[in-house]
Structure formats: structure tokens, C-alpha cells
Amino acid sequence: MARFRPAADAHTVDFTDRQIAALFLVLAAITSIPIVLYPWPPLTDYINHLARMHIISTIGSDPDLSRFYEVNWQVIPNLMMDLVVPPLERVMNIFLAGQIYTIASFVLILSGTLTLNRRLFGHWSIMPLIAFPLLYNNVFSSAR
């Protein structure tokens, strides 16, 4: 049975750690463009989440909100947005805080793929960067 072997003069392209980091930053910036250009992504209940963030952030200073709402903290899977966005809203508007949170989530997901690949194979690789286009998947972009 014949086996495929690359030619002796075949050249493989190796990327340095700095090149991979630079490419990561460029791809993260490109991926962030739709989020920056449009104040809310096409998520089904994103506006409801932003409204909840606004209530959490201002309930202590707004008597009307405190009359109708109560913050009841529980350990739930979606708690990270509740912890990050309200403090951001104290220094910026809710839409910008939501955009920063969404972009940070994207960067964390993708840096996780890079780190996992590094731990599994012992070196930095460009291969995990193919996950960038997968961020805009059906879960993220399906508005119902």
C-alpha cells in the first residue's frame, strides 16, 4: 500500500507566538465590528437582559424601580452578566456596557480555545483561530 509522504523540500509555515497573538487581536477586532456598529446584537432577549442590568444598577437610587422590583441573588449559570454589566453602567450607558460585555465574552471564549490547544499540544498554534467565524452561530444570531 502506498503511503503519502511530503516532498523533502516541502516547506511548512511556522508562526511565532507574537504573530499568533497579533493575528488573534486582528481577528478579535474584526469579529467585534458588528457589535460595535449596532448597539444590540440579534439575540432573542438581549434587550430584556439590558433592562434587567439597568434595574440592578439603579434599583438603590430609584424609588419607582424599588417599589416594583427586588434583586434576589441566586446561583444561576447566567450570573456573570449580572456581576459585570451593572458596575460598567455606572461609568457608561447600558448599550456600551452590553457591547463591552459581549466583546469580552467573545475574547474569553476564543482565548480559551487557544489556551486549551496550548495545554493539549504544548505549543501555541494558529489552528484554534479557526473558531473565530464560529462565534456568529445560530445560537448567537437567531432572533425569534
Question: What does the model show?
Answer:
The protein is mainly α and 144 residues long. The protein is 58% helix and 0% strand. It has helices spanning 17-37, 46-58, 63-68, 79-89, 94-121, 138-141. α1 (17-37) runs antiparallel to α5 (94-121) and α2 (46-58) crosses α4 (79-89). The longest helix has 28 residues, at 94-121. It is elongated, with a radius of gyration of 21 Å. The mean pLDDT is 84.
Number of strands: 0
- What is the overall shape? elongated
Q: Number of helical runs?
A: 6
Straight-line N-to-C gap: 54 Å
- Secondary structural class: mainly alpha
Q: Give the DSSP E fraction (strand runs of 2 or more residues).
A: under 5%
List the topology elements.
Layout: H1 17-37, H2 46-58, H3 63-68, H4 79-89, H5 94-121, H6 138-141
How is this structure best summarized?
The protein has 144 residues and is mainly alpha-helical.
Features:
0% strand; 144 residues; mainly alpha
